[in-house]
Fold this protein.
Amino acid sequence: MSRFEVTALGEAMLRLSVPPGERLETMTRLDVHLGGAELNVCAALASLGRRCAWLSRLPEGPLGRFVLRAARAAGVATPGVSLAAGARLGAYYVEFAAPPRATEVIYDRAGSAFTGLSAALVDWEPLLDTRALHLTGITLALGEGPFSAAREAARRAKAQGVLVSLDLNYRRKLWSPQEAARRLADVLPFVDLLVCARADARTVFGLGDAPETVLGALHDLCPAENIVLTCAQDGAVARLAGELVHAPASAAAVLDRIGAGDAFSAGLLDGWLDGDLRAGLARGAALSALALAQRGDLLVTSREEMNAVVERSPSTVNR
């Protein structure tokens, strides 16, 4: 039996946000959360009772220890996380907004400890002692070192029969669509489960047709047997072993959008671990809704709570 059910490789960052309705340019206080797409996925799965591990590179000192404590408190194992003396922890600032303004994200991550990661520095034993490896396009965007590490992780996992999951997760502030398409072309051949937002498919690959057509075009780019196209409030459309499946979104009161996509990927992987990606689509929608309804990147939930949302249980007060 594998030591872990899901492992992931990625960066963690401090999230510093002003309270909703306030502006960064007049800030007097900041709310602090820990985030990072791959760690978010592992934390959500760990809250469901899954054995998960996250590999990264952190600064040596209090900030690195802060991240390790938070990850472990969320139930995520951290073997293979390396510490770099004199390095820094990336951060991002968030200004939440209501229409007509858009929420603003400002990154401060250049030269972070994680950008110094390379394939030569990865501890492969814990990362590949798993049933599934989860990656995102964010890691591919963070420089040649992280890109080479992610590509080699995908290659090794594929060779060992480990499922490779990739969430494209395009971030326009990190790289251009052209660079994204070029680097993704080196990784997509190793991917077994691809998650892509409809907007990202349009931006990166120029695929703006009906979801069913986009799925077919994505399959031409990526030989994955299972491809999921997320469509925001319209839910998701998936190509599962050649069969088209639609999954509606779960209703949610939106308090914090950051991390909802990662929660969806976690639910999808939870279904895959049970041999049922159809169930994974429903669980992903449920976890995404739960993430939207709470503040912070790391989802705090339980399998019972997720199942209640899947079953469309009416809102009530648990006394």
